[in-house]
Predict the 3D structure of the following.
Amino acid sequence: MTSALYIASIPVFKQMLGGLHEVLSKAEAHAADKKIDPNALLQARLFPDMFPLLRQVQVATDFAKSVSARLAGVEVPKLDDSEQSFADLQARIATVLAFIDGLDAALFDAAATREIVSQAGTPKEKRFTGQSYLFNYGLPHFFFHVTTAYAILRHNGVEVGKTDYIGTY
């Protein structure tokens, strides 16, 4: 039987990253159609103290790959965070999708009780069980950044809706 944490993580990450891919495609087309510098959208923010779109996508993909890797008990792949364009962000999403798609479901069999230690950008480490890490930390952060990326684009006039956000399931 497939692990519940595999079922609750990998298909969800794949679906939402697929939606993010589509939203970014529409944003790139919108910029071209309206003759908007793509960088205006890539650097757009909802508020000055929030990350811009480009960074929101990087962080969302970071959560998808790192949560998946830690639950599977494998090394978290490193990405450069050097993206500068919609094409770069699409390539990053494709890289993360390929990584998580390649994780065997059997690697998640002990994930619920596996100890996960995270530092989350601060010097103070946090300890979780795999179950708590996924449901109380990983998924909420992932959804925050995917939702914020969508909201930035919607706020900037890109014609996207709920079905674009949700993706294919």
Notes: The domain at 4-166 is CATH 1.20.120.450 (Four Helix Bundle (Hemerythrin (Met), subunit A)). The first strand starts at residue 115 and ends at 118. The radius of gyration is 16 Å.
